[in-house]
């Protein structure tokens, strides 16, 4: 029986929170929030805006005024994706959310895939939306970007021994327990490497990670925040993790042996 079906039958309310970091996403945010609010089972939404110059934060406030399921966390300045997510994780842990989704605001992470990822949490602590298993793919990427991204995952697997096929993807669902297994004060990275760092910590903590296939279209509106600094951070961070360890905290209760599985 699924977590949500169990909750329905027992009368327990399962609470899911989708965390969406934004920086200059004014054209993407309103349709994204509408699409997420329409999903079943219903989700709460947390937008984390780093004082976007294009006014995304104000737009988010307007959306929050229309629905009490939407909250906005305003941060004073652009500090990177990783810091934004950590603020979101703290928010989720301070409240009684059972499942946490993290996803980009630019529709590369398709809202309609969220229920499928959440369902896969029945068999896992963490569900990774994967572009690198059967059924997963990207749309609209240049050959160079394909190559860089593929190499990023291979490099992470080689250096850290990760068994995931897609180590750098940021479309994930996790149980509350997966956040509790992290020492958030020890997370070092901020860009793409953030996703690798968390995957490494979860595998060190012995949590069960599942990959499910996703289709990942390139962003249509707005501008990428990818930079050479973010790529360099990823390249150097892996070695720091390898030699100094990742941000895994003691797991609250014994989990199964580290494992990666796939689900379709
Ligand atoms: N709050 C916050 N959000 C950020 C920051 N940097 C990026 N984001 C958001 O994080 C998500 C991912 O950023 P993208 O620019 O799409 O990065 P990307 O997916 O690597 O690049 P593209 O595929 O080219 O779009 C988007 O929702 C951004 O708006 C930041 O410093 N602070
Ligand atoms: Mg993107």
| Number of contiguous helices | 9
Strand content: 15-25%
For the biggest sheet, the summary is: 8 strands, mixed
Structural class designation: alpha/beta
**Which sequence of strands runs across the widest sheet?**
3-2-1-4-7-5-8-10
Helical content (DSSP H or I, runs of 4+) = 25-40%
Radius of gyration: 17 Å
Order of helices and strands: HEHEHEHEHEEHEHHEEHE
Q: How many angstroms does the end-to-end distance come to?
A: 17 Å
Bound molecules: guanosine-5'-triphosphate, magnesium ion
What is the count of β-strands?
10
- Low-confidence segments, given as residue ranges, are none
Shape: globular
Mean pLDDT, as a whole number? 90
Provide an overview of this structure:
With 264 residues, the protein is α/β, with parallel strands linked by helices. 38% of the residues lie in helices and 18% in strands. It is built from 9 helices and 10 strands. It starts with a helix and ends with a strand. The protein has an 8-stranded mixed beta sheet, with helices on both faces. Strands 6-9 form a two-stranded parallel sheet. The mean pLDDT is 90. The site of guanosine-5'-triphosphate (GTP) has 20 residues, from strand 1, strand 2 and helix 4. Magnesium ion binds at residues 104, 106, 108, 219, 224.
Q: What secondary-structure arrangement, pairings included, does this model have?
A:
Layout: H1 3-10, E1 16-22, H2 29-37, E2 44-49, H3 56-66, E3 70-74, H4 81-94, E4 99-102, H5 114-120, E5 126-130, E6 137-139, H6 143-160, E7 172-175, H7 176-180, H8 193-204, E8 208-213, E9 215-217, H9 228-244, E10 259-262
Parallel strand pairs: 1-2, 1-4, 2-3, 5-8, 6-9, 8-10
Antiparallel strand pairs: 4-7, 5-7
